[in-house]
Amino acid sequence: MYKLFLAIRYLWKRRIAYFAIAAVMLCTAMVLIVMSVMGGFLDQLKVKARGLLGDVIVDNRSYTGFPLYEEFLADIANWPQIKKATPVIYSYGLLRFVGSPQTNTVRVVGLRLEDVYEVNAFKASLYYEQHYPGTTTLTPQAQPLAGFDMDAELIDWRDEHDQPMGRGPLPLLPSAYQQALEKSWAAGVVDDDSPETEWTRSLRALKRPPIFGQYGLVEKPGPPEMAGDRQPGLIIGRDIIARRLPDGRYHRRWDYPRGCLTTITLVPASESGTIDTPVKQPFRYADDSRTGIYEIDSQHVYCDFDLLQKLLHMDRAERVDSETGQSLGTIPPRCSQIQIKITNGTDAAALTRRLEQFYRDYLNDARFADKLTLSDIQALQYVEAMTWEQSQAHIIAPVEKERQLVSSLFGIISLVAAVLVLCILYMIVLQKTKDIGIVKSIGGSPIGVALIFLGYGAAIGIVGSALGAVLGYYFVTHINEIQDFLTSVNPAWQVWDRSVYSFDQIPSTVRTLDAMVVVAVAIAASTLGALLAALRAGFMQPVEALRYE
Amino acid sequence: MSSPLLVAKGIQKAYRMGRSPLRVLTGCDLTVHAGEFVAIMGRSGSGKSTLLQILGALDVPDAGELRFAGTSFHAADHAGVRWALRADTVLRVLQRVLLVLLTALVAVGFLAFIIVPLVGLLGQGVITSWPRVLRPHLFASFATLFALAAALLVLVVVLLVRLLLTHVVERRRIYLRRKDFGFVFQFYHLLPELNVLENTVLPRMVDTPSWSWLFRPWAARREAREILERVGLTQRLNHRPSELSGGERQRVAIARALVHRPKILFADEPTGNLDAAAGAELMALLKQLHGAGQTIVMVTHDAAIAQQADRILRLEGGVLR
Ligand SMILES: Nc1ncnc2c1ncn2[C@@H]1O[C@H](COP(=O)(O)OP(=O)(O)OP(=O)(O)O)[C@@H](O)[C@H]1O
Ligand SMILES: [Mg+2]
After folding, report:
1. pLDDT for B110-135, tens place per residue?
2. What spacing in Å lies between the alpha carbon of A504 and ligand 2's midpoint?
3. What residues sit around ligand 2, an ion, with C-beta below 5 angstroms?
4. Which residues of A touch B190 (CB under 8 A)?
5. For residue A412, what are the contacts with CB-CB under 8 A and spacing of at least 6?
6. Could you list the residue range(s) of the whole structural domain that residue A432 is in?
7. Strand B4-16 relative to strand B311-316: parallel, antiparallel, unpaired?
């Protein structure tokens, strides 16, 4: 008991121990914060990375794709583990907006929109679909142009830069769009993606739904209309079409309104891998998608699966002998990926193995025995099934590594705290030499005296890490407020640049287990730091200790 | 006559001062019976404190025999203790070796980790070549690091074992200090962070196992209060030693030495730092205690004070007469 009593008394009375407590506290808080923020980042990344994927993905990593997907989809359609499966084509192309001199290289994704909505979170990533439910399609469509509500009162118009343009009539969209807008307005959908402007504010003040996004205007004042020729719709990655602002919102340009014309130049490849003549296809900008992962949002555009398949010559075709002109049967249609949503509680890893085997078994299937050519067989041989985590490992794994690295780095830095505890305790033991002699003279044993100082170190660790855990927890849970406060004091102090990172908020998750481990390590480290001092105290001879000046 | 409580025979003690040892005690014999009040006199520097510390089990003699109530408490008198001492000698050698090894490893590690890559780096002059330069030494560096950690671990284990051995060697003396001996020092030696009551109760705390202290600290506290009342400090229970006068501090020291009802009270010049009046008061207290049956061995250089004892011995030339 005297050990505990003296350890606590010394802790309380020796002010210098407060420094050790502060060091332990700061180190604990630091490691906790780093782990939580990195962990939160990782969690968010995982959520977002999975955004556009099914639970399970079947792929053969080939530009020319793989055949027999229709048969495969039909065969697995009634497996109980599978909710929905949909084919996807990945390709590359050149994107150009009509009237713009710029050309972007993009990944062109062909998908069946309705199916994809069921398989993954793609729908939630669409801007116009969110504010105009049901208006986003990939089918041929004309451009909606906003007109004017000639019956309504005049309002103040503002231009792109929020400058007053004089009074004008209230804008109005083609009826389908206007109805969809009013539906979402009634449902309380707010636009937190576009920058707030006087224009939107004043419209809202008028109890008129502000028009979300950018629409072209009819040429002369008149009712709204659907203009231009009908072209297939294209969903464009948001970072391609809009500019990301420092606060994480997007600025959509007036010269690229919804429905504006773009063209994509595609490069079909033949079965043997040689390039066919490039094809050029006009599209209308139907919507933009933001998954939250910059690499995707700045490179991907999405169009209709069947259209892309045809453009890339991956559809069903006649195989013709080049010399004789004779028909050699049909080339089966191909896709480059199948995305699958599985039912809850299904073991995804086991399912991937089964699906992969199932697909490869097509090679021995009597149905296709004489229909498959050599290139088909090769394409099938490379078909792999994987879980979405496996397929996104190249994005997630580096961050996971980084988290471990940074956490352990900070952990090593925290050794400084242990060394500080060591120094301070050693100093205290020297200062308290006489006391040690006294305790020994009244019967304190070497082990008992050593335990006083070991307990001292442990007490420093317990108090310090408890305070550190509280501090770290508070910091992590209020990290965005702290950042906002700092930014409001001086904008240059913004640590988390929302135009750089894909998340608007500094992500953070406090894992209780992590926190407990950190606290335990902090206590162990300060106890170990006290070990040397404790041993010294334990070995002291009472007579010599009493003599010490 | 009753059997002797404390017996010392042929006690020798020398301090190593440079080359020639300073032989302080050359052969002291002493027998103390229960209830006796013995005074030891001698000139300053004659070795009175040294002798008293040896008698009080705070120090060990170089040679001689020490018995309390018939049982020896000289370190080397038990087989277990002798064995522990021998093991300790071996471990001490091991500890030296480990320390040398650690120093060498730190030097090697420093070379392998910092100097060699640095020289290589400067030689190549390109930062990007760092991993290439480091790689040949990486293995060596990690091996060194590993060895360092291992050596450190072994050292800690050795130290812990030695601490245990010290405990074994000292066990009998620790027990005596805890149960049977009370010691009053020339310079009070109170714990400055504790108040009067806490200082007094501390020996009881040391003596009581934690669990029983947790449940019954009151008895010890009450007895400490009684003792403090006997030495006249009832009003000062919550004061710190720094707030007390020398005489009061010495009385706290006496209270602390008596709180666990020791068989023998050792007092090293208890009046040495007090004026005549305070000294007389303190001697009255000691006489009163002696009257109540307390065995006391007291050291003093003051003949008048020594007169109060039953028996006066003189320490001269390293022997008691
Ligand atoms: N640890 C030590 N190392 C070296 N010499 C010591 C040590 N302890 C005591 N001495 C020497 O041994 C001698 C006896 O010391 P001790 O303290 O026993 O004398 P003393 O009789 O109590 O003197 P005083 O009356 O002044 O208290 C002194 O000369 C002292 O210098
Ligand atoms: Mg002395």
Report:
1. 776 666 666 665 665 544 555 555 55
2. 76
3. B 49
4. 438
5. none
6. 2-47+396-546
7. unpaired
